[in-house]
Specification:
about 75% helix, Growth Hormone, Chain: A, mainly alpha, 3 domains, about 525 residues
Length: about 525
């Protein structure tokens, strides 16, 4: 039985679903969605290669990591808030407000006078970025019926992957040949174009007028924001700014646990909760949330650690190292577009299981690569991994969006993206600890003299390997290779976790809600 023939189950019962927007007039809106997705993806990575220039002008080397962490925190914790707001007030006002906030933060970043101001303005950017990520995906699901949805989702996936990989290169070019402030100013014309297209061309279908004025759960939104901020601060900074078992880490985790309990209490009493209980009570949505959280964990291994492997172990320059990573963007969209043919035959869950199984095998193959090896070998691994991930992530997102109606789609999409983002944040901290522990242990028991004594010194030595003896440099490169191997094995474990969730929690057939005819 194909997924289009499935009947809706009890968990798919929801409000009326407005009919899909006619094909005529979609083009400008799709263009705006792609521009918005590009903005959100670029600003997650574009700053990385401009850090030396930024620190050189503004100072603040000890806290510059918050340029990334602050943006990440703001995007992650606002996703469920924007999802609920878009279900309550409509997608268009939420997306327009998000773009305005994002552009305001971009302009403020360009005129920052010190590192503290730049970090604060990056957080403002992230507050708008949360609306861009979640609402763009939701509008894409609104615009297209189930059979056509993979096409737009594949386009958005391509834009996201390409922008994320191109971000560091673009940031380096602007910082080297113009000024680092242009990294933020370049957002203005792109965002203005997206804003104009959305304001002029996006017309949302008419909905039933509610008999009572919608209530916004601001208390729940504040609790979600505070809980996520404290938890992710502890995860991002633990093991970096302070030890994992130190007082700051324990205090942050204890406070986040207390706030999580308060959030549950507030949400249970709220008339229109930001994170409604049905998100976790419905088997399909809960399973997809957990599976994509594990896949977010998995994604950290290639995006964060492969460039270091390519430069430190293979001896590639930054441009070539970026190419090794970017080949994943070639296979991912092709596989994602092809996935619709697979899930129309075997269903969403079994398609995702196939993709996750392949991803597990590919990740396990990485530690088997020879040392030092050739660049084409990890590039081939990434090409295959992109194909596997395209086969599993898109069916899960399209499938879960199809189990709910318009009035719940924003909340559902935001919960999925929120879990994936949290998985990435946890993965960055967890795998960073794995890599650091591996290298530190090998340095502590090194049989080779002349090696750096700590991780900071090892990082500097990797930048200038000629300062070491040939034997010491080779041992250090082997240590980095071992650390990345362990990270990829950890990513394979995350893939197995996603596989177990899909096998034992996700229903074999997703309860698809068919579109209702106009006027219902």
């Amino acid at each position: 039985m194909s997924v289009s023939d499935e009947t809706p189950g009890a968990e798919a019962a929801c409000g009326a679903t407005p009919p899909a927007v006619p094909a005529r007039g979609r083009g400008p809106v799709v263009a705006a969605l792609m521009l918005g997705m590009a903005l959100a993806a670029l600003d997650g990575t574009i700053v990385s290669t401009a850090v030396p220039q930024i620190v050189g002008e503004l100072g603040g080397f000890a806290v510059f990591s918050w340029l990334f962490s602050g943006y990440l925190l703001a995007v992650t914790v606002t996703l469920p808030v924007y999802g609920k707001l878009s279900d309550t007030f409509g997608r268009k006002p939420v997306l327009i407000a998000g773009i305005i906030v994002f552009l305001t933060g971009s302009v403020l970043c360009a005129f920052a006078w010190n590192m503290a101001a730049l970090i604060a303005f990056r957080i403002v950017q992230g507050l708008g970025g949360g609306a861009l990520q979640g609402t763009v995906q939701t509008i894409a699901a609104d615009l297209y019926p189930l059979k056509e949805r993979p096409r737009i989702q594949a386009k958005l996936s391509t834009v996201w992957a390409t922008s994320s990989v191109a971000g560091p290169a673009l940031g380096g070019l602007l910082a080297s040949y113009a000024d680092w402030r242009w990294i933020f100013l370049i957002n203005v014309p792109v965002g203005a174009a997206a804003l104009w297209l959305i304001a002029r061309h996006l017309t949302e279908p008419a909905r039933r007028t509610p008999t009572t004025r919608p209530k916004t759960d601001w208390a729940g939104a504040l609790c979600v924001f505070a809980t996520g901020a404290l938890l992710l601060t502890g995860v991002v900074q633990g093991g970096v700014a302070w030890p994992w078992l130190s007082a700051p880490s324990l205090a942050l985790f204890a406070a986040s646990a207390a706030l999580a309990a308060l959030t549950v209490y507030v949400e249970r009493r709220a008339a229109e909760p930001v994170i409604p209980g049905w998100v976790w009570r419905r088997r399909t949505i809960a399973a997809v949330n957990l599976a994509l959280g594990a896949l977010g964990l998995l994604m950290v291994a290639p995006t964060v650690f492969l460039p270091t492997y390519a430069q430190s172990v293979l001896g590639l320059n930054p441009t070539a190292a970026g190419f090794v990573l970017s080949v994943m963007t070639l296979s991912w969209p092709i596989s994602a577009a092809f996935s619709s043919r697979v899930y129309n035959r075997i269903g969403f869950r079994d398609t995702a299981i196939t993709g996750v199984t392949l991803a597990t095998l590919i990740l396990v193959a990485f530690p088997l690569l020879p040392f030092p090896g050739h660049a084409w070998q990890p590039a081939l691994i990434m090409l295959l991994l992109g194909a596997a991930l395209g086969l599993c992530q898109l069916p899960l997102i399209v499938g879960v969006q199809s189990t709910v109606g318009w009035s719940e789609r924003g909340t559902t999409t935001a919960s999925v993206l929120f879990c994936r983002q949290v998985g990435q944040s946890l993965g960055a901290a967890l795998f960073g600890a794995v890599a650091n522990t591996t290298i530190a242990a090998r340095l502590a028991h090194a049989p080779v003299p002349g090696l750096p004594g700590d991780l900071d010194a090892a990082s500097r030595a990797l930048q200038h390997p000629t300062d070491l003896t040939a034997q010491a440099a080779d041992y250090l490169r082997r240590s980095v290779a071992a650390a990345v191997d362990h990270v990829y094995l950890g990513a394979a474990a995350a893939a197995v976790l996603a596989l177990l969730v899909l096998l034992f929690l996700a229903p074999r057939r997703f309860p698809i809600l068919p579109p209702e005819p106009p006027g219902k």
